[in-house]
Amino acid sequence: MSFFHFINCFALSFAPYFIVYKYSGINEYSSVWKCLNAAVGYLLTQLAKLLILATFFPALDGDGFSILPEFLKSCADIVDVIGLHLLLTNFLAGKGEVRIVVGGLGWGFAHSVAHRLVLLWVGARGTAFSWRWIQTSLDSSSDLLLIVSLACLTWMITRSPNKAIIVPVLAMCTFSTFVYQTVQHTFSLYGWSLLAFRAAYSLATALLTVVVYSANRSSTARKID
Amino acid sequence: MQEEIIDFFRNPALVFYMTLMLTVCVVNGSQQAGEVVETEFHAYRIHQYEISGNMYGSKNYRVSYEAVSLGARAIRRTTVTTWREVLKSNVDDLWELSTGAVLIFIPDNIDELNDVDRKAFIDLEQKLAKVKTDLAVYVAPYDDNASSVISDIQNRADNFPSAFQALLQSVSGNTISITSSDSIPELPANYKPYNIVGRLSSGERATPTIAFVAHYDTTSVIPGVSPGADSNGSGVVALLELLAVLSKFYDTPSTRPPYNLLFIWTAAGKLNFQGTRHWIEEFQKGVDAGHVVDSSSNERKVFLDDRIDLAICIESIGRNTGGLYMRAGKAPSENSAAAQLFRRLRNIAPKKNIELVSKKISLTSTSSWEHEKFNIKRMPAITLSTLPSPTDPARNSVLDLPSLLDEDELISNIRLIAEGVLGYILELPETGPSTDSRVTSEVSMLSKDAVDKQRVHHFIRQFASRPRPVGDRKATESIAANLASVASGYGQVFKSAVGFVDSKPFGVTQNRLVAERVKPAVFELVIAAGVFAYLSVFYFIATHSQKSIEGTVSVIRKSIF
């Protein structure tokens, strides 16, 4: 990967977070330090998750793919929801919507750094051109959608009277990694097709979240009325 | 603000964060499967050597050029092609280029070529043997990766019907860059392969010596792949087996023949017999010096009271070509050792077509047979070989494979030589026990199984089945050490380091070539434009997100709930 290519991939990975922060108007309500709070929250949550994985699934790197163990492993992702919930309720201030976006942004940014930055850095050594880096970087946008949705749903789950419609969508968010892996192995999707699937899945989740959110809003509004 | 930043870095969480980041990356990195962008070839360089100031073969070994097909004669490029194309087309002007490289794919199953292909391959070898070039020339066995690389290069070279397609290709097409990845150092200036000398001593002073000589290195146009089973694996094996057979006679003083026997495995025989020349010089120095050698230098002590009665050089006796040729510098006189041995060989094996070929040696040009080195120094010597001509293509060919070795022929030749020499040194009657032609009983000094089939087979596996070019330091050193250790089981063994005088070997007989698919630099600009467009769309969505989401929410609220 040439230096230019590295810059391209870097921009593709991290510019969306910057743009969302800068131009969605969220910077008027909250400082960048709150986002960093969320990033630290992400770190601690991942640490807890790793500890759980190490304790209950010590043979992490077995060969092949089988549904049930993978599903059990991805149950550890529920820790994400708990961590995000603690973060939103205890460490961020302001209106619910602001907390959701700030928490989601910081969380997503930390996720993106952890999953992409070093990978790109290491990958930059090879001289061969590969679409892989572009694909990895593009994924960061779908992750952003998914994580903001996750934050929104986590916020609503404790505050909404009708949990029945939130839980399935929240499950969709939480087990997204599991879904990706399963789809990848059963339909042997790689490269662009996998990327397209992830984008579609994230978009669907985000839309459903908006629907759930409006339902929630209407019910609270009715209560106020 | 500053305080806040510093506080942030004081945060112990940061350390956690870094650790975690690395963990996640390592775990995730291994999962990513992608298209193959890097292919590795184990490639063998064609020969490079220098004899009396003239350089032959490929002078370079570094490769880091873009790949092109055979048709393009471009400087600073790697020409990638197959051996059949090289045979078909005229490539003389390719070798004239000053920088660049050539990668030729040869069949991966050289052992299984049919007769037509075998002939074609020999043609290729002869074509390559004449090459003198500044390019780095490699060959690699053909495989699936090779075919994909070649087809990629072909696609790029094809002409396009429209200018637009050509433009598209030049912007986005894959180019393949080939790099040599092993940085093997050149042979050091003080590199000296060893002559291995085994000796069976008569135990008496001033007894004459018979020397058996065979060079143990191999070569061909592609030194890294030629095991040289017949030339001169068969010679190495024959000497070992002769040593094993004849050493029995030297076990007890009562049976010891009145001759010393020397078994000399010489190094760098393919480079104008450097090892042989070196040994002769050392030998003559030892004789001329008049016995004044202290006991510490064993090497010379051997030669103290030796007089070479005959040096028997052995090369390529492992293939049935319908004859065994005894080559000499001039026709030997009636009573010379060579003539006696010749008569004996003929009497022992009357059915075999044994011929004496005498050719005057040339002092100026390179020697074609090993005995000529002895003849130049006026020492009696002959070469035994089944090859009809010194320029026989089978002599230095990649196709000189162990599977083509005729073990029975080799064993019968070894036995014949052993019998002939034994008869000579024990002074048995030349024509057998009786001069009466009616007596036809077979007489032999050796028992039926004296030349051990199993042992010969083992020697072939150990010494005649792997490439051992003098340029490959590791292979040369290992073969010399193995020879010395096996020979020391039968007799005294000495080593001596051989310097190169009128020739020079070169290293790097093999290398790893990495082919990488790369995009042209312009392509990065195209991607940058794409990235910019994508981010602009993102910007547009972000600036309108609040409004649009609120709008959507109210629409949904009104319409559904």
TrEMBL record, chain A:
Statement: the UniProt record of this protein carries the keyword Membrane: yes
Cell membrane in keyword set: yes
Location in or out of the cell: Cell membrane; Endoplasmic reticulum membrane
Entry membrane topology: Multi-pass membrane protein
GO CC annotations, alphabetized: endoplasmic reticulum membrane; plasma membrane
Pfam families (UniProt xref): DUF2053 (PF09767)
Transmembrane regions: 6-23, 35-59, 100-122, 165-183, 189-213
Keyword line: Cell membrane, Endoplasmic reticulum, Membrane, Transmembrane, Transmembrane helix
Family named by the database record: Belongs to the TMEM147 family.
Name this protein carries in UniProt: BOS complex subunit TMEM147
Organism: Caenorhabditis japonica
From TrEMBL, chain B:
Keywords attached to this entry: Endoplasmic reticulum, Glycoprotein, Hydrolase, Membrane, Signal, Transmembrane, Transmembrane helix
Listed GO CC annotations: endoplasmic reticulum membrane
Peptidase M28 domain: residues covered: 195-295
Key word Glycoprotein present: yes
Cellular compartment(s): Endoplasmic reticulum membrane
Subcellular location, principal: endoplasmic reticulum
CDD domains hit by this protein: M28_nicalin_like
GO biological process terms on file: protein-containing complex assembly; regulation of protein targeting to membrane; regulation of signal transduction
Residues annotated as transmembrane: 521-542
Membrane topology: Single-pass membrane protein
SUPFAM superfamilies: Zn-dependent exopeptidases
Superkingdom per UniProt: Eukaryota
InterPro entries: ArgE/DapE_CS, EF_Hand_1_Ca_BS, Nicalin, Peptidase_M28
Range of residues in the leader sequence: 1-29
Family membership noted in the UniProt record: Belongs to the nicastrin family.
Listed PANTHER family: NICALIN (PTHR31826)
Protein name in UniProt: BOS complex subunit NCLN
Upper taxonomic lineage: Eukaryota, Metazoa, Ecdysozoa, Nematoda, Chromadorea
